[in-house]
Design brief:
Layout lengths: L19 E4 L2 E4 L20 H11 L11 E2 L4 E2 L2 E2 H16 L3 H21 L5 H13 L9 H12 L6 H14 L12 E3 L5 E3 L7 E6 L5 H12 L1 H9 L2 E7 L4 H6 L9 E4 L4 H4 L10 E6 L4 E3 L4 H12 L1
Helix pairs in contact: 1-3, 2-4, 3-4, 3-5, 4-5, 5-6
Length: 325
């Protein structure tokens, strides 16, 4: 991934334009030249304050690109005159910026992005900004396979879409449902409690787990990705040490119905973990958690406050390494 520019601005210009005719934001030109994505310029006052620089970047990353007075080449294959692939790379960079600020600021930045993209749509639909940003928001933040996924941030965007009058009622209802599901167990909230049974029939509750941190792991028997996570965790001596010291508990829960298959995989699960299944289907049927794909990882603190939600495994591994010292 390319680094996000901090101190310098890439100028936006039309090169080799022989003659132009402007209509709203779209500029027709005889010689076509795509534009570069206009990078945000961080004020000099933040040059030595990285935290504040990232806050500024999160708020203003899209300002020049979504400026409704902006002129751009008329071409349906472009997004406000910029190649779609370049815009996609910048969206990926934007998600990295959001990871560098606190969740409140990140949510604020996502709401601002929607507001500016929808303003572009109202001003000139030919810019293609709104539909492109919406596509990338879903692909990067909500696709279960995205290594950058973040339900909470996508939920902010989906909630805005649910109230947007520029799409059909059916689409608004679908986004409202997504927003509702994304609101379950948000980062910073207390995770929903549930009970589960271990292989011996003993019942446990999530809130009954006493550890500084809890790794909640929704897994399935026969899931290759689950097996890889188990391998990484069991091969990491720091994780074993965290468990032995009582600082970490791993709660590995199966939420589907084939209990016989789950029992067949018991030998794969470390005995130091809490390994169980949902005997009454409450997690799945009552939708306590928005488990859209397996595996799904959550990190909780001692009070079972959500620190990471359906987080990419590499992000979880990095976190565990950091607390292990």
């Amino acid at each position: 991934m390319r680094s996000v520019p901090v101190r310098f601005r890439i100028p936006v210009m039309l090169l080799a334009v022989m003659s132009v005719v402007a209509y709203q934001g779209c500029v027709r030109q005889q010689e076509f030249v795509p534009l570069k994505f206009p990078a945000v310029e961080v004020p000099v006052m933040y040059a030595d304050d990285q935290a504040e620089a990232f806050v500024y970047l999160s708020e203003h990353f899209w300002d020049d690109f979504t400026d409704t007075s902006r002129h751009y080449p008329c071409d349906s294959s472009l997004v406000s005159g910029v190649k779609k692939g370049d815009v996609e790379q910048e969206f990926a960079n934007f998600t990295a910026v959001l990871q560098a600020v606190d969740y409140r600021q990140a949510r604020k930045a996502m709401a601002r992005l929607f507001d500016r993209a929808s303003a572009c749509e109202r001003a000139d639909t030919s810019s293609n900004i709104f539909e492109t940003v919406t596509e990338f928001a879903e692909r990067y933040l909500y696709d279960p396979n995205s290594p950058l996924r973040d339900e909470d941030l996508y939920g902010v965007y989906a909630a805005r879409m649910a109230g947007y009058d520029g799409i059909s009622e059916t689409e608004r209802e679908a986004y409202a449902y997504d927003a509702q599901m994304c609101s379950l167990n948000e980062v910073g909230s207390r995770a929903a409690n549930f009970v589960f049974s271990d292989a011996s029939g003993r019942m446990h509750s999530l809130y009954g787990i006493d550890a500084e941190y809890t790794l909640l792991f929704f897994s399935n028997p026969g899931c290759n990705a689950c097996e890889e996570i188990i391998r990484v965790l069991t091969d990491a001596l720091a994780v074993d040490s965290l468990i032995e010291s009582g600082r970490l508990a791993v709660v590995n829960v199966y939420i589907d119905e084939d209990i016989a298959a789950w029992y067949d995989y018991m030998s794969l699960y470390p005995s130091a973990w809490y390994n169980g299944y949902d005997p009454n289907g409450i997690i799945r049927n009552d939708i306590l958690y928005n488990v859209r794909a397996i595996p799904s990882l959550y990190v909780l603190d001692r009070d079972k406050t959500v620190l990471m939600k359906d987080a990419p495994d590499q992000r979880v591994f990095t976190f565990l390494a950091s607390i292990a010292g």
